[in-house]
Amino acid sequence: MSSEVTARAGEAATSSELEVKLDALGAEIAALKRVVVAFSGGADSAFLAKVATDALGREHVLCVTAVSASLAPEELDDCAALAGEWGLRWVQVATDELDRPAYAANGADRCYWCKASLLDALGPLAEAQRAVVVLGVNVDDLGDHRPGQAAAAERGARFPLVAAGFTKAEVRAASRTLGLRTWDKPAAACLASRLPYGTPVTLGTLAQVAAAESGLRRLGFAQLRVRHYGELARIELEGDDIGRAVAQRAAVVEAVRAAGYRYVTVDLEGFRSGNLNAALDGRRP
């Protein structure tokens, strides 16, 4: 279990406050009548998919996982597993973000073009279902650099977790209350987020990052990022895992070099979600 996740879950609202927010979320979803959930399998989208399915019934909720090179293979596998465990109505859809030059260029607006591709893929499905697309954006997400939210809103997507006032900690706490195994799932993000802005996004680079991270997960590291700097991989781990990585450095180096990296480093500052966004305001990434 991630110490960071446990700490954040502990910052959530009281049981009575969570109950009020769960009621508000149920009301938000009920008002939409039919929804298409952008289902990445992370804690937020999984929570939204389960609550929506419980609130509206399986026939009124379609959970859709966008499949591309930017999705880690383990995440797709877990989406399939969760759909089976929870009885979700689930489909996959291919997205074409890598075919968009503005996305592949990896500028500060990369996430905008990623979400544009996602909504362009989900739109026809929602239209066929006479449904509204909903995303698992929470209140905390509003304060980060996430231009994809604008792309989604421009295309009519809704953010029920925001409307109900859920923070990330409250999503985790409510998920735990509901008995969802995703309550302490390590934070995930698209693989392109491992590349510093300005580094072109390619199929080969995404596959390299995915292979390195998969190799580290097989060694037992759960919350991690492999930041890509050409031949150099900079590994971010939770503080408690840094010592363990050093202790088994031969296996760590082997796993990362097997993905094609020549140099393997461990960031002593540890895991920081959205770390590379620091470059946008002049801070060191």
In short:
By secondary structure, the protein is α/β, with parallel strands linked by helices. Helix content is 47%, strand content 12%.
**Low-confidence spans:** 6-10
Q: Summarize model confidence as the mean pLDDT.
A: 92
Cross-sheet strand order for the largest sheet: 3-2-1-4
The quaternary state of the protein chains shown equals: single chain
Q: In percent, how helical is the residue content?
A: 40-55%
From the helix content, strand content and strand pairing, which structural class follows? alpha/beta
SS elements, strand count:
7
> Major sheet: size, sense and barrel closure?
4 strands, parallel
Give the helix tally: 12
Please provide the ordered H/E string of secondary-structure elements.
HHEHEHEHHEHHHHEEHHE
End-to-end separation: 27 Å
**Looking at the structure, what is the overall shape?**
globular
Proportion of residues in β-strands: 5-15%
Radius of gyration: 19 Å
Write the layout of secondary structure elements.
Elements: H1 3-10, H2 15-32, E1 35-38, H3 43-56, E2 61-67, H4 73-86, E3 90-94, H5 101-104, H6 110-129, E4 132-134, H7 148-154, H8 160-163, H9 168-177, H10 203-218, E5 224-229, E6 232-237, H11 239-247, H12 249-257, E7 263-266
Parallel strand pairs: 1-2, 1-4, 2-3, 6-7
Antiparallel strand pairs: 5-6
Helix pairs in contact: 1-9, 2-3, 6-7, 10-12
Description:
The chain is an alpha/beta fold and 285 residues long. The chain has helices at 3-10, 15-32, 43-56, 73-86, 101-104, 110-129, 148-154, 160-163, 168-177, 203-218, 239-247, 249-257, and strands at 35-38, 61-67, 90-94, 132-134, 224-229, 232-237, 263-266. The strands form two sheets. A four-stranded parallel sheet has the order 3-2-1-4, sandwiched between helices. It has a three-stranded mixed sheet with strand order 5-6-7. Helix 2 (15-32) packs across helix 3 (43-56), helix 6 runs parallel beside helix 7 and helix 10 (203-218) runs antiparallel to helix 12 (249-257). The protein is globular, with a radius of gyration of 19 Å. Mean pLDDT is 92; it is low at 6-10.
